[in-house]
Design goal:
It contains six helices and 20 strands. The protein is an alpha+beta fold. The protein has three domains: 90 residues, no CATH class; 98 residues, no CATH class; 100 residues, Thrombin, subunit H (Beta Barrel). The radius of gyration is 28 Å and the shape is flat. The chain starts with a helix and ends with a strand.
């Protein structure tokens, strides 16, 4: 009798456990299907079956013709990491065909055209430009070109040994193009071309309040006329007035950014430090350049696309009878409103171009892997 009673108690429990396990399995299966659906490449409804690349196109611009999420450009091309870093595969005149039979859809180049398509067959052409020069860039260079060869960030302590202007030949306070200045710190360096800049505002991490570096305000370029201490330099170009105390850094080749737009392989979360060229707490918009408190040490690289979110405010309960500061608070959710394209990466700081936005871009807003 005792055994029978025990058996009656055990079997209902086992049955309940079995039902619970089945429920959990179904929940996990449903979740996996949801995640898969979320990760599925989504084509635009009006995505063309083919597109002929034109001069002035960009990878981002072409991607927006096919994809709802243009930052997933590398996926629809099925490119590997090396091709992401050097995507010299698309040029003006190339025919891009969308293969909808593949899952997910696939983009391929197909320059052999069928006469039934009412299109012309592309013929080989000799170009004076190199293959790399003709390759379609990731984003329009007109927005970022001035920033590819200029110093943007001076890391903390980096100003200590940087050459500086100690005087001018004419004794004038300000110099422009053609002016001659005397520079201490160049010495017998064989470097001829130099960038002139002025230390700007410190780049302060919004999370830690730590100074990550000092933003460099570009003033112009100079060429060494005579080495020595001080060395004599002539101002080749000037975008602003140059004066005593301004600094110099060696000119470097432009950082050519041909990286295909792609998301980081790991989850990265950071914040916008500032909008370049604006006053403190200035707002930005589409094609503004912003600094981010993440860099190469955080696995951020050129070509990475980040989502930008407005940090939700805390508001008091409107039905509370307590004062505003004592009332229960509601934390509003963060709202995603745009995308950034990273084009310059330093150790702890990066610079990105605002590609899409539906709201003003504000310092302090969050950026993360989309």
């Amino acid at each position: 009798m005792l055994l029978a009673m025990r058996s009656q108690r055990v079997f209902p429990l086992e049955d309940a456990m079995r039902k619970l396990i089945i429920f959990v399995l179904f929940a996990l299966l449903a979740h996996s299907h949801w995640v898969q659906a979320q990760d599925e490449l989504k084509l635009k409804r009006d995505a063309p079956d083919r597109y002929i690349v034109e001069k002035g196109d960009t990878l981002w611009g072409i991607a927006t013709k096919f994809l709802k999420d243009p930052w997933r450009w590398a996926e629809i091309w099925r490119v590997n990491q090396e091709q992401i870093r050097n995507p010299h595969r698309i040029q003006p005149g190339d025919v891009i065909v969308l293969d909808r039979s593949k899952r997910p859809a696939l983009l391929v180049r197909n320059n052999k055209r069928d006469a039934r398509d009412n299109t012309v067959k592309l013929a080989p052409t000799v170009y004076s430009e190199s293959y790399a020069e003709r390759a379609i860039p990731a984003i329009s260079p007109r927005y970022i070109e001035p920033f590819l060869s200029r110093p943007l960030v001076i890391e903390t302590g980096g100003l200590d040994k940087v050459p500086r202007i100690v005087g001018t030949q004419s004794g004038s306070v300000y110099l422009g193009s053609g002016g001659v200045a005397y520079v201490s710190g160049i010495g017998d360096s064989e470097q001829e071309s130099w960038e002139i800049f002025r230390p700007g505002a410190p780049l302060v991490d919004p999370d830690t309040s730590k100074i990550l570096g000092i933003e460099a305000i570009h003033l112009g370029t100079a060429r060494v006329v005579r080495a020595g201490e001080p060395a004599t330099v002539r101002v080749v170009s000037a975008t602003r007035e140059i004066s005593q105390g301004d600094r110099l850094l060696p000119s470097e080749p432009a950082v050519i950014n041909r990286y295909a737009p792609h998301p980081p392989t790991s989850f990265i979360k950071g914040r916008i430090i500032s909008v370049f060229g604006g006053l403190k707490n200035s707002e930005g918009g589409k094609y503004s350049i912003v600094s981010i408190n993440k860099g190469s040490q955080h696995a951020l690289e050129m070509g990475h696309v980040l989502a930008v979110k407005h940090t939700g405010n805390s508001i008091p309960d409107p039905q509370s009878n307590l004062s505003r500061d004592k009332a229960p608070q509601f934390r509003l959710p963060d709202e995603r409103y745009g995308l950034l394209f990273v084009f310059r990466v330093f150790n702890a700081v990066s610079y990105a171009l605002v590609m899409e936005t539906s709201l003003p871009v504000v310092p302090g807003d969050t950026v993360n892997t989309p």
